[in-house]
Design a protein that fits this description.
The complex is a heterodimer of chains A (375) and B (622). Chain A has 15 helices and three strands. Chain A is mostly helical. In chain A, strands 1-2-3 form a three-stranded antiparallel sheet, covered by helices on one side. In chain A, helix 4 runs antiparallel to helix 5. The longest helix of chain A has 34 residues. Chain B is α+β, with helices and mostly antiparallel strands and 622 residues long. Chain B has a domain of 307 residues: 3-Layer(aba) Sandwich (Beta-lactamase). Chain B has 22 helices and 23 strands. In chain B, strand 2 and strand 3 form a beta hairpin. The N and C termini of chain B lie far apart (95 Å). The C terminus of chain B is likely disordered. The chains are: A mainly alpha (375), B alpha+beta (622). At the A-B interface, helix 11, helix 13 and helix 14 of A face helix 1 and helix 2 of B.
């Protein structure tokens, strides 16, 4: 297929496998969102929850439009705008402090007219652009030391710290992991890697010992209930246990579309934001989950493939960054739903309900498509 | 990098396989448990009736007020609720503190109902129901409470209910009891608990069904058969007791502080009436008035020196005193150590060994008949000198003393028929002949229960057949079908020489019907009766001639009367014990006479009713 494309190539050509995968995931996500909110159909006061799939469609349309725009503009143009976008992003994160709307004890949103939007979502792409720009302009060919890597890492850590303070542990983690993924793509000196590894271990130990003062109460409870889920089956571990029950209930072939009892009888909390996968796995079973995993896995691997074929270092870093965002989101969300990770509010790309998330995901995939089309 | 991604996704997949294939069964079960809820369906406890079909224990509705802590608005709703529930200031403050505490502790517990007020009265109930809109989160829940229409009458026999406490729950939870349930605490309520309690039912329901869903369809899909089990109401129990006779007893014994009385049907061993005084009100103990009332009542009852909770007809033993003399006489006659015409010169007592054994008076020359009628101790001391103590004990055992009667209701005391070996065992190997003298007049170590005495007198009356005491006549289903009837059961037929027996019975008839008889003064015209009075010494220091009223209450003599009526064709046996009442003739006989009189009146009335067509058929149990 690759060869074919090359041979007929006369201009920017759409990356069909990527497009098909994205469309497939988005379709599944939308259908699943309908199932997730179906228990609310016709139920009086909560009835409007059943209609959120409509607004999700609007957001997808908006996201696709913005994604197409980012695809059409040559990605190299963004190299020049990266600094401006980055400063703007930092500024808007600061703005959250001033204008932030409190939702569930955290101020992550900014109100714009009748819309609320979450600057931290968009910041993910901006960080990637900024780091990609740095790597692009750094001609060094010998292995990098930690000092060489300090500026790009700082580009990620500064907004991560800002987001952490909102508090939004999940997004901060995404920032850090994405930054490390992109930076890790470069050649790094062996000893530096070792230092980082040692520092990471020490850091983990210190974090565990001082978790009480570093984390907010609810974060701490989630973490501790993850480590020891049987200690408090009614409290923080509740969500995770219910999600796992739903997934296990699905079995091999699933309960059928809109038939998962855990969801239909209101046993799944946050079923359309944090745990859409539990709904999906309950409805479609292991077979359905396998298809979805394959699609997500394909996008991530395809991003690496695109990076390896990119025309320049900026494109490669950008592709890796987008892939990393996508990958870490998927990994953390699924891991949380199936009980491999503690509960953190990280969305599942194109499955979770939410304008900022959908639009950001589609824009970032637009960048990926962009790099793929201009290699 | 691709490898790292692949590894991560493979890990996710592996975990999914674990969840959805290997642990699938278990998660499926949990998921089903999450949505299927088993509602308990309450059952009703069986009714207890007396022999005439009158209800002695039934159920009445009571109303408890429950509230959901999370739903109660403490600012706006709570003051209004306090007003409507008519709570005291302190009560309201305590409850409020409890609600706040529950809310602060756990969000999940806060959504569960807690009991605010138990058994609200009708006024409050009405107010709460009409103003239900104003107090969201608070609701009135009906729960049946045991009700005893006759109050203290027959309370020991019928029994009362008690709430299951934590310690008890571990023992009874396997039988289907839950915390907060009540079960029979004493009496018939306890003994026949398994029949009375009935069986709870259940119904499966789906929880979390949203509005606008087709419930029937969902239930058909997710609920496995059987979807429900109907509750089985408890069995009804008919007693042999006639509550009107108990009432008569209660009125007859009214002047006395403590005592017990039993009326037994001579021909069947059925207990027609039983009373233990002082009594208690089972309504209060059974929780109708709330937990604090129950606790207070128990504290009061158990600190009372007159032992209101003790069933004195069954659970307590007393020296029988002179009421034991007929048995001593029978033993001596059977042994041939005395003949009816032998006379003893009573000079107010007998000297035996180094002790002087007093009589109740100076009776001069008395034969057996006169000794019985006048209750001459000297005669029986003489009798005791000629007989082995084991023979006295033997006849007592034959008539059911010293062993449990097997009535089954309430803890039963055994009483004691002292034998030579018993004395040797308890008095370091020595045996004094004087003990036989005391045993012959029912003193010393001899103790009996009121019920034993009544059954033994019934056996005397019917010619020697000792019956099993019977309290429950039949068991019925709630719609009146008889499930089981209990026929009278003979425990043993005592081998007696009928001429000896009739001699003794003549003596007992003389007690009431002859001028010298100790019970003559209180006889009733028109009723032939036979019996024996008794004045059982409690304290050795309280000898003859001491004014009983001046002695400390707990050292006074017990007053006994045991007898049967009518004298020539006996139908009932009656035993009256007035604890620390003093002389038997003066204190116990009048009580017995009044009871027998009422019994006679009731009998006449029922004969008339039966003679009338249709009359008497109202009573459910014939």
């Amino acid at each position: 297929m690759r060869n074919k494309e090359l041979s007929f190539r006369s201009g920017p050509l759409v990356d069909m496998p990527l497009l098909v995968a994205i469309v497939a995931i988005a379709t599944c996500g939308l259908v699943n969102l309908y199932s997730a909110t179906s228990p609310y159909i016709g139920s009086g006061t909560h009835g409007r929850i059943a209609d959120i799939y409509v607004s999700q469609i609007y957001w997808i349309v908006v996201g696709v439009l913005l994604g197409v725009i980012t695809t059409v503009i040559d990605y190299r143009a963004f190299e020049r705008w990266a600094t401006v976008l980055y400063l703007g992003g930092i500024f808007s994160l600061g703005l959250v402090w001033v204008l932030g709307t409190d939702i569930r004890g955290a101020s992550r949103w900014i109100q714009l007219g009748s819309f609320t939007f979450q600057p931290s979502e968009f910041m993910k792409i901006v960080i990637v652009l900024m780091i990609a720009r740095y790597i692009h302009n750094d001609p060094q060919t010998e292995p990098r030391t930690l000092i060489d890597l300090a500026p790009p890492v700082a580009f990620g850590l500064v907004p991560a710290a800002a987001v952490m303070a909102q508090p939004d542990l999940g997004t901060a983690m995404i920032f850090v992991m994405t930054t490390l993924s992109v930076v890790g793509m470069t050649k790094i000196r062996g000893r530096s890697m070792l230092n980082v590894a040692v520092a990471a271990v020490i850091g983990m130990v210190l974090f565990w010992n001082y978790r009480g003062s570093l984390l907010h109460g609810y974060q701490l409870r989630r973490l501790e209930s993850f480590v020891n889920p049987d200690a408090d089956k009614t409290g923080a571990a509740w969500h995770a246990l219910q999600a796992q029950t739903a997934i296990g209930n699905g079995g091999l072939t699933g309960e059928g579309f809109m038939q998962g009892t855990q969801n239909q009888f209101g046993r799944l909390p946050d079923q359309y934001s944090d745990f859409p996968f539990a709904v999906y796995a309950e409805d479609w079973g292991l077979l359905g989950s396998l298809v979805l995993l394959a699609l997500y896995g394909f996008v991530c691997i395809w991003a690496v493939h695109i990076a390896s074929q990119a025309r320049d270092r900026f494109g490669a870093a950008l592709a890796i960054g987008v892939g990393a965002i996508f990958f870490w989101h998927t990994l953390f969300n699924l891991g949380m739903a199936i009980g491999l990770f503690p509960v953190v509010g990280i969305t599942l790309p194109l499955f979770s309900y939410g304008g900022s998330s959908v639009v950001t995901t589609l824009i970032s995939l637009g960048f990926l498509m962009n790099v793929s089309m201009r290699r | 990098m691709v490898v790292a991604v692949l590894v991560c996704f493979l890990a996710l997949f592996a975990r999914l396989v674990q969840l959805q294939i290997f642990q699938s069964e278990q998660h499926r079960a949990t998921a089903r448990e999450n949505i299927v809820y088993q509602n308990t369906l309450a059952t009703t406890r069986g009714v207890i009736r007396d022999a005439m079909g009158r209800v002695l224990a039934a159920n009445r509705p009571s109303y408890n007020v429950y509230g959901v802590p999370a739903k109660i608005d403490l600012e706006k709703v709570w003051p209004r609720a306090v007003e409507l529930m008519r709570l005291g200031e302190q009560e309201a403050r305590d409850l409020r503190a409890r609600i706040v505490a529950i809310r602060a502790n756990s969000t999940r517990l806060a959504t569960q109902q807690i009991l605010l007020v138990a058994d609200v009265d009708r006024d409050v109930l009405g107010v709460l129901e009409t103003n239900a809109d104003e107090i969201p989160g608070i609701e009135v829940v009906p729960s049946p409470v045991r009700y005893y229409p006759y109050g203290t009458l027959g309370a020991h026999t019928i029994g009362h209910m008690r709430e299951i406490d934590g310690e008890m729950l571990t023992r009874v939870s396997s039988r289907g009891y839950k915390p907060g349930d009540r079960l029979g605490g004493t009496g018939v309520e306890r003994r026949w608990e398994s029949y009375l309690k009935g069986q709870r039912g259940w119904r499966k329901t789906l929880r979390g069904v949203r509005k606008g869903k087709n419930l029937d369809e969902l239930e058909a899909r997710y609920l496995e058969d059987p979807r429900s089990l109907e509750p089985v109401p408890g069995r009804d129990i008919s007693l042999t007791v006639d509550i009107e006779l108990v009432k008569a007893m209660e009125q007859a014994i009214r002047g006395q502080l403590a005592g017990a009385a039993v009326v037994v049907d001579v021909r069947t061993g059925r207990i027609l009436a039983a009373l233990s005084k002082p009594g208690f009100d089972p309504n209060v103990l059974s929780g109708g008035a709330g937990k604090t009332e129950v606790r207070d009542a128990f504290r009061r009852l158990y600190s009372d020196p007159l032992n209101p909770m003790l069933d004195k007809t069954i659970s307590a033993t007393y020296p029988p005193g002179s009421t034991y003399k007929p048995f001593s006489a029978l033993a001596a006659l059977a042994e041939g150590t005395i003949t009816p015409s032998d006379e003893v010169d009573c000079r107010g007592g007998v000297e035996y060994g180094r002790r002087y054994f007093r009589c109740t008076g100076v009776h001069r020359r008395v034969n057996l008949h006169e000794a019985m009628v006048q209750s001459c101790n000297s005669y029986f001391y003489q009798l005791g000198q000629g007989i082995n103590i084991d023979r006295l004990a033997q006849i007592g055992m034959d008539f059911g003393f010293g062993v449990r009667t097997g009535i089954g209701v309430n803890p039963e005391a055994r009483g004691r028929m002292p034998t030579r070996s018993w004395y040797t065992h308890h008095y370091k190997g020595q045996f004094l002949g004087g003990w036989t003298l005391l045993a012959a007049i029912g003193q010393g170590a001899t103790t009996v229960t009121v019920l034993q005495l009544a059954l033994s007198y019934a056996a005397l009356a019917n010619g020697g057949t000792l019956y099993q005491p019977q309290l429950v006549r039949s068991i019925e289903t709630s719609d009146g079908t008889v499930v089981q009837e209990f026929p009278p059961r003979v425990r043993r037929v005592v081998e007696l020489d009928q001429t000896d027996l009739s001699l003794v019975k003549q003596g007992m008839k003389g007690v009431i019907m002859e001028k010298e008889g100790t019970g003559y003064k209180y006889r009733i015209d028109g009723i032939d009766m036979a019996g024996k009075t008794g004045t059982a010494q409690v304290d050795r220091a309280t000898g003859r001639g001491v004014d009983q009223q001046k002695v400390w209450y707990f050292n006074r003599d017990h007053a006994w009367f045991a007898g049967y009526a009518p004298a020539d064709s006996p139908e009932i046996a009656i035993v009256v014990l007035v604890e620390h009442g003093g002389g038997g003739g003066k204190n116990a006989v009048p009580v017995a006479m009044k009871v027998v009189q009422t019994w006679n009146e009731l009998k006449q009335k029922r004969l008339v009713q039966k003679a009338k067509p249709g009359g008497g058929s109202r009573s459910r149990v014939q």
